[in-house]
Amino acid sequence: MCLAVPGKVLSIEEREGTRMASVDFGGVVKEVCLEYLPDLEVGEYTIVHVGFALQRLDEESARRTLALFEGLGLLEEEFGDQWEIAARAAGADEPGAGPGAEEARA
């Protein structure tokens, strides 16, 4: 699933004629293209989808949305190590896997 995720602009630079920003998504920092929001500034919040800043967002809305996404596990799904997530999901399908499985084997 690809979410539009709010993040805070940490820094901005121009690379080969394109404005790019380092954006913090609740502890995960990614590079984002600012071509759709050329006047976005450091310290502002934005909604990002597939690597593009699409809309400016106020800080309170951004924080509430990030907290909601984190509580639902969506930040890990969006930004986590996909191999690790898949391995955990596969392990949960095996007989004897899941909460308490380690204690049961001991």
Question: Please, could you describe this protein's structure?
Answer:
The structure is a single chain. 34% of the residues lie in helices and 34% in strands. 20% of the residues are buried. The N and C termini lie far apart (38 Å). It has a 5-stranded antiparallel beta sheet. The protein is an alpha+beta fold and 106 residues long. Strand 1 (5-15) and strand 2 (18-25) form a beta hairpin. It has helices at residues 59-71, 74-79, 82-93, 101-105, and strands at 5-15, 18-25, 28-33, 45-49, 52-57.
Could you give a quick summary of the protein structure above?
This protein is an alpha+beta fold. Helix content is 34%, strand content 34%.
- Please count the beta strands (DSSP E, at least 2 residues each): 5
Q: Alpha-carbon distance between the termini? A: 38 Å
Report helical residue fraction.
Answer: 25-40%
Main beta sheet: 5 strands, antiparallel
Which structural class fits the helix and strand makeup? Answer: alpha+beta
Number of helices: 4
Which descriptors would you attach to this protein?
106 residues, alpha+beta, 5-stranded antiparallel sheet, 4 helices, 34% helix, 34% strand, globular, disordered C terminus
SSE topology sketch:
Elements: E1 5-15, E2 18-25, E3 28-33, E4 45-49, E5 52-57, H1 59-71, H2 74-79, H3 82-93, H4 101-105
